[in-house]
Protein: VWFA domain-containing protein
Organism: Chrysophaeum taylorii
Amino acid sequence: MTESIPMASKVVAVEELPSNNRPRDEAIDIIRRMGLPQGIAEQILKSTESFPVRYWIVDNSGSMSTGDGHRILTGPGGREGMVTCSRWDELGSAIMWHARLAVELGAYTEFRLLNAPGSGPQIVIAGTTVGSYDPASAEELRCIDELIASTPTGRTPLCAQIRAVTAQVQAQKESLLATGKRACIIVASDGQATDGDLAQALAPLRSLPVWVVVRLCTDDDSVVEYWNSIDEELELDLDVLDDLSGEAAEVTSFSPFLTYAMALHRLREFGTLYKLVDILDERRLSKHELIDLVALIFGDDAREQLPHPSLGFKPFLRALKEVQAGAPPVWDPLRHRHRPWINIKALSRAYGTKACLVM
């Protein structure tokens, strides 16, 4: 029942949220230190402005102990590799990353467990102040540590938590609309709701200023189909994400030249209104959209360095090679090794002169 789901101590007023008053370049540098390239850092900052409040609905049901999750770890000498872990450990790694980002930027975020943990709070809030140097921020991260150290247990009462968050956003609706902003709701789950009709629970969000991300913690076909059917049924701004490897396979089926790295996945988990991101796993990009892709990774300034690919693809490739030259390679979750963000040769094969003749 909804009554068993705790609300936050109070509904936070949008006007009372912390403000990231750092200079833009300083804020971008802070985000980049979390392992993001310039363009994705720019989009993260824009996202904090578009979505001043975030709600993570976190599935800590018993099935999250299943050991088919994956994490990227950094070993001696900076060597990276993907290791097998529980679904809960994989999600916990994501939660800690987003909590640290929230703390650094003052990006108000509620992490709400489906089931009460054995100890500690069921709701943890991060980003109530700006900067990890603040004592309050250290306490927030300590509580996040405690949250992800808890043991998954119980069923999957998604509907109750969605209704609780809906009530929060309903109270913030007028303030959000007045400022042209939205709340971002991230549902991280490996299953289907055990407490009712999920589509019915989500339906009231259609009249609220929200963006919804569903971060799946399994590649089980029935669960994926369950969430995709809800996405099709509801007229709601909703982005369903597979895990890193699953999403990488989808994206690269349309863009085989692109390395779908963790930084891009983190942006999508965070929520973004950058239109290109929403179509990466849906279709092949147009030549004009290739410029948007380069800007997404390497920053808006990269646009000025690129000739339009339709006016000559070889000059475009030469300019892209220069733009990418200083960027470190990133971990490819499909090939399990470091690769450049964009494979120039593969891009040439996909969009060069011969490819254009058959398009």
